[in-house]
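Researcher: Can you fold this with protoporphyrin IX containing FE in place?
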Amino acid sequence: MSILERHRKLTAIWSSEPGFKGWFSTVNHTDLGRMFLVTAFFFFLVGGVLAMLIRAQLATPDSAFMGPEIYNQVFTMHGTIMMFLFAIPMFEGLAIYLLPKLLGTRDLAFPRLTAYGYWCYVFGGTMLLVSMFLGIAPDGGWFMYPPLTGAIYSPGINTDFWLIGITFVEISAIAAAVEITVSVLKFRAPGMSLDKMPIFAWYALVTALMILTGFPPLILGSVLLELERAFGLPFFQAELGGDSLLWQHLFWLFGHPEVYIIFLPAAGIISTVLPVMCRTTLLGYGWIVAAIVALAFLSFGLWVHHMFTTGIPHMGLAFFSAASTLVAVPTGVQIFAWIGTMWKGRPELRLPMLHILGFFVTFVIGGLTGVMVAVVPFDWQAHDTAFITAHLHYVLFGGFVFPILAGLYYWLPHFTGRKRFFRLGEVAFALIFTGFHVTFLAMHWVGLLGQRRRISTYQAEDGWTAINLISSIGGFVLAIGIAIVVIEVALHAVTANRGKRNPWKATTLEWAMMTPAPAYNFASLPHISSREPLNDDPDLAVRLARGEGYLGDSGPGGRRETLTVNASSGQPDYHVIYPGNTRLPVFMAAVTGLFFLSLLLKFYWITPLAVSGVAFLACRWVWTLGHRGDLPDQPVGHGVALPNSIAVDHGSGWWGSLFLLTANATFFGSLLFGFAFLWTVAPGWPPPALFEPSLLEMAAGLAAAAASTAAIRRAIRANRNGQTVMPSLVLAIAGALVLGAVIGSLMLRTPGPSAHAYGATLLVLGGYGLFHAALGALMAGFLAMRVRRGFTSPVRRAEFPIVRLWIDYLAVVGMLVLLAAHVPGFLT
Amino acid sequence: MAPAGPAARSIATLWWVMLIGAVLIFGLVMILLGLSFRRRGAAADEARHIRVWIISLGLAFPAAVLLLLLAYGLVIGEQLLPRNNPEAVSVQAEARRWAWTFSYDARPERTTQNVLHIPAGRPVDVAVTSEDVIHSFWVPRLAGKIDAIPGHVNILRIEADQPGTYAGRSAEFSGGGYDGFSFTVIAHDAAGWDAFLMDGTE
Ligand code: HEM
Ligand SMILES: [Cu+2]
């Protein structure tokens, strides 16, 4: 087969439907990555327009441009859009587009999940945009502190848009994080052991793990606040045993890691692009990996620095202040590793490099002011002033927007296959850089003079007029710079001429393909033996296109296929057949949206319909996978033959479940933390009446939990030995149902959920347990159906361990819920 | 920043120290960046680069600076704590949207709205709480801020060196009336404070 024939054949297998119809049915990571990036950039522009409105409002004293009602919506939406609808999706888009290309494979682990996440993001983002155009956007500030955002002080629907819309968007973040984690761990080119991964993959992996453990606390907070607003369960009302500080803990338990979730991918861009701009390799690869892992751990121990003024005991302040300054050390390691890289090589002032320099200047200042506000006494002055706003923009703009612009110009030739024609980028950089520093240096200053953040206006007597005007002018210069970037990119996409492959002479795999990238990425997969594959073999691209790598001959029945590797060693592991184009993800996202919409508009009769709809579609989703007959091991070239993914113990679905459960466990852990926090810190505890414990119920529940895990294990053993598995599966289902019943009784007997936070928390704990009992029963039932229809055999066994994970999780959660409810009653 | 009390003053000093330190560090980083563009002869080996850049500059340097800063910050934080002091005066501040009610231990039946009276030259412990949403008690020239949180009482120590009038602000966003939500602190000399406690003048 010639290169062209192979290209045609693979394109026929992998390409999306032509035209705009293809957008709705594509599951290809290149398409979806591009769609993510464009959408996120769109939201950046929306957020930027809002920023301009803010600066217009603050440019003059006694401004009559907007009243506080509108202004409060504007700054809340600016912060919310930038954090949730721009920064995180931008990372997701970049990772989705790049990872398979960097890792030398053809797609991500779960192509349909990528699409589902994208549509959840679009629908959730649209909800927020709609609220803005209707003038009923959230207005409580991007961190939404109750009681201000509770039903009493914010009775309108504004806050609900935030809580529900953002939760919807978070689903997409969790989906992408599962996707990225499993893809980095399993979907790589053969031979690429962990230490040979391109550095960006490490950043993406750590970031994804942080999303899995950082976002659940916020999702929990949003669920609790929405329950309080909609049904009067008083989690955050001090008179009823709640505590508004609980929200702050949950929010910042998310919010601080969030800052690093935004910064790390950007740092990943720097670590990838900078060495190429300096014609050298990254200095201290191992040190950088250690630094980002350390950063990830540390960042979960810092959240209290956002709460230094809330009356935290002195010891606590000292601890969190120390931890917050400490986190500067791994950041310092990275900064100096980069500067060392520049010393090692010969830096060239090309456009991406300019933005990297912009990053250095800005981010270092942001880091230094960050250390300042980590010192508690100073924070007591600076907190909630324009100084903080300025600091956070130095970190976010310096640490995210400049690197993204560097990445944009670096990968633009890859996205389009063209080379830059109009040299507008340099002008744009100068405007952005100057405009940014004028705007925000001024804001540091006016903050020190006492200007609070979030005020919609100030008086001429305050003496801030000139500084604010300067700041606003800077803001508009910055905006013009961004506009020029947009114009340049648009012109580039339509008019520039074709460029050559690998214009930067980079050594990573994404350049070993045609540009723009073909739908299948690589006609055959490389064997990796170093971190710089294109350095070892400059002709790699051609050899892969000729089919000389793995999977060079397209497989059974023209299906989309790839292979996975052992997570650490990079040895080939199993063979994967991907699903093709489908509208199922967009459809399922729409039904998920219906669920959220029914909560938002309080059409509660729709809610159960939407839930069943999602459950039904999820079953269909999984049902289409698998085979009814055993497949022989698949030869993948170079004398290697691999089992299919359904014929292994730990297939992709198992890995995905594992990481989804990690996020889920964090959610549950946060809930338990909230329970303990309220019990020990909130005013008005212990509650007037404890839950009436019942030894019988508790024993029944614990026994049922144990029985179901034992049963699913027996089912696995029986399947392996070719015996009948049905009795064991029925027992597992029965166990889950009994456990659910006991928990249901707990929920019914919970004392006064709307009278005290104790009852309210028990109700939520119970609801969580009940949901997992239902889910466990559903999954075991689904497995039973699969067994009956012949989708399993002693060889085709991959589905059993997945169900086992969920049943085990149910058992642990169920037991903890029962203990949390019954034990305090026994003790008194 | 024009500090008019010990707490605000030590924070201002802290700020100037940190600003100078930050400018120096920033200058250092920029010089190193700039020098990397110089044309150079043969490159040093990787291990040496790692020792210089990562271990010395990346690890040891920030760690040392931060330890110093942390110690300094802790000492100042310690001084700002409301410690037992026979001189200290206790007052209560309760916030609601958008007004403050102040009451005084020395004269329990007396309350004032939006104006807090304190004696100059004596430490004052303000017990801060809120009856609706979260607010924050901040008199920039006297001290840092502390939040007013429903169901919790937080204590902030403030002190004014000289008698005078100081602007106070509520620095936690509280919805529609937040812009204008401010108050005043009047520091009296000893005679004025006695007079305030004795009669009803505001
Ligand atoms: C395009 C240039 C930008 C300008 C001119 C700008 C300007 C501003 C201004 C003036 C405020 C504060 C208003 C106040 O509280 O007094 C603000 C708030 C904020 N900005 Fe930006 N911003 C920009 C980009 C960004 C980016 C890229 C991000 C994040 C990735 C971001 C995140 C935030 C957040 C989180 C807030 C706080 C909102 C709140 O208080 O609830 N901004 N921005
Ligand atoms: Cu933080």
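Model: Folded with protoporphyrin IX containing FE in place. Chain B has a mean pLDDT of 88.
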